[in-house]
């Protein structure tokens, strides 16, 4: 069993075996207290050294870390192939909405929601929420401390000039080379300064089946998220985007992998069937993140595993969520997979059933 823990010293979340949480022996997935502070070992060596340390003390090496448990997940079946979804955000430091979307994804995945529990038991999510921390710290709009647009250096990142990018790329390549891991999704979250709604960029492949398969996730997301536009979603291989994560990893990973840039407007979204723009709020960005996470339940056809009826959207929700159509007619329009409008995206859709926070 794995515990999703948040370390208090740096407010960073990890998924670790529960054996690293001292004095914690859950008998079920409900059996934890997310208010209590536990001692958690960050790595196996720390646990092995425990007898040499004074319990509860913060030594010079910070061997005993304080953390809260947010959620639990079952072990994947022995020998089962790990399905991995890798998500990154904030490679462009000025695109603050991407952090709220990413926060929505993380909060949902570690929540008590029945969908989140099923997802935790079947899919491994690896998330790097801030790819350009020095740029964020300095208040840069697009570049790192050294003036690089990191999203143009995926092809050959330097450990000295682009250390965060280099580290994440190494991790992704390690996973790609591990036969027990199937890296099925890479999603890089950005914010867009001229377009409306949320939408995606994907890759173009010669293999028609692969090309068409890439359209599935954004179509499903369009059904779950009122602000996500499949019409604005496009697929390209522009030379100017060659160094981006989505383009580079789309060329590197095998044909079962899908790589996307998820864009969300800095400003507003237009609900299908209306002409008025709804300004985005921080909460609306996080809701998009929650809907991104829940869409993996549909993609992997895990719906039958969700226990009990799904909770309706709480009435505390500030935004009115009427029955809606997917937003349409606000994008490049001629570069969709298959080249045709998606009929399902025009249909009336039910409200998303996600909690608010
Ligand atoms: Zn960007």
Automatic annotation (TrEMBL):
SUPFAM superfamilies: Zn-dependent exopeptidases. It comes from the Eukaryota. Its cofactor is Zn(2+). Residues 317-357 are annotated as: Disordered. Pfam families: Peptidase_M14. The active site is at residue 263. One of its GO terms (biological process) is proteolysis. Residues 339-351 have a biased composition (Basic and acidic residues). Belongs to the peptidase M14 family. This is BEN domain containing 5. The gene is BEND5.
């Amino acid at each position: 069993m794995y515990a999703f823990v948040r370390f208090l010293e740096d407010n960073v979340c990890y998924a670790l075996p529960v054996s690293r949480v001292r004095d914690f022996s859950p008998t079920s997935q409900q059996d934890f207290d997310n208010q209590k502070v536990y001692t958690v070992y960050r790595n196996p060596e720390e646990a092995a050294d425990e007898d040499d340390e004074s319990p509860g003390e913060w030594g010079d090496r910070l061997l005993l870390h304080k953390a809260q448990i947010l959620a639990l997940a079952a072990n994947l079946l022995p020998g089962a192939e790990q399905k991995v979804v890798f998500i990154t955000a904030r490679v462009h430091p000025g695109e603050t909405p991407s952090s709220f979307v990413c926060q929505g994804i993380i909060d949902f995945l570690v929540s008590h929601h029945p969908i989140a529990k099923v997802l935790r038991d079947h899919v491994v999510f690896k998330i790097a929420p801030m790819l350009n921390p020095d740029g964020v710290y300095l208040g840069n709009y697009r570049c790192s401390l050294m003036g690089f647009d990191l999203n143009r250096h995926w092809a050959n990142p330097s450990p000295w000039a682009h250390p965060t990018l280099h580290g994440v790329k190494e991790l992704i390549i390690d996973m790609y080379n591990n036969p027990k891991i199937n890296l099925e999704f890479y999603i890089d979250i950005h914010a867009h300064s001229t377009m409306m709604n949320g939408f995606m960029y994907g890759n173009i492949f010669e293999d028609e089946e692969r090309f068409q398969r890439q359209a599935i996730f954004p179509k499903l997301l369009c059904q779950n998220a009122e602000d996500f536009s499949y019409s604005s979603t496009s697929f390209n291989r522009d030379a100017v985007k060659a160094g981006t994560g989505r383009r580079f990893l789309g060329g590197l990973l095998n044909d079962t992998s899908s790589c996307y840039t998820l864009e969300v407007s800095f400003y507003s979204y237009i609900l299908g069937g209306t002409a008025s723009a709804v300004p985005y709020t921080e909460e609306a960005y996080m809701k998009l993140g929650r809907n991104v996470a829940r869409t993996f339940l549909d993609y992997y056809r895990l719906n039958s595993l969700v226990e009990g009826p799904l909770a309706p959207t709480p009435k505390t929700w500030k935004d009115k969520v009427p029955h809606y159509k997917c937003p349409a007619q606000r994008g490049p329009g001629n570069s969709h997979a298959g080249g045709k409008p998606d009929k399902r995206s025009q249909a009336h859709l039910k409200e998303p059933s996600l909690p608010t926070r």
